From TrEMBL:
Transmembrane segments: none annotated. This is Dihydropyrimidine dehydrogenase subunit A. Residues 13-55 form the FAD dependent oxidoreductase domain. It comes from Bythopirellula polymerisocia. Gene3D superfamilies: FAD/NAD(P)-binding domain. InterPro entries: FAD-dep_OxRdtase, FAD/NAD-bd_sf.
Amino acid sequence: MPVAAPEMHLPKRVAVIGAGIAGLTVAHELARRGYLVSIYEANAEAGDFFRSTRRAASR
Ligand SMILES: Cc1cc2nc3c(=O)[nH]c(=O)nc-3n(C[C@H](O)[C@H](O)[C@H](O)COP(=O)(O)OP(=O)(O)OC[C@H]3O[C@@H](n4cnc5c(N)ncnc54)[C@H](O)[C@@H]3O)c2cc1C
């Protein structure tokens, strides 16, 4: 009788480095597909360049 590979029963986990537009987008899409996503961001806030453009626009 065939035995299933152990990894077939593990949740799909992904680490995303950087919470800029690209990182947040891929994290969102993978989460929708059932992946368990962890985002690692060097800054205190997410968004990076997008966040800086919003600050400049609000002045
Ligand atoms: C001057 C300028 C003007 C622009 N104007 C436009 C425009 O008008 N329209 C447009 O569509 N695009 C524009 N762009 C391009 C757009 O800003 C970028 O394409 C977009 O921000 C890239 O997003 P990103 O998520 O790839 O990178 P980023 O927004 O740079 O995010 C990367 C994130 O990863 C984090 N990070 C990096 N390394 C690590 C690490 N080792 N560990 C943890 N975190 C890490 C950073 O802190 C950052 O938060 C412009 C870019 C520049 C520089």
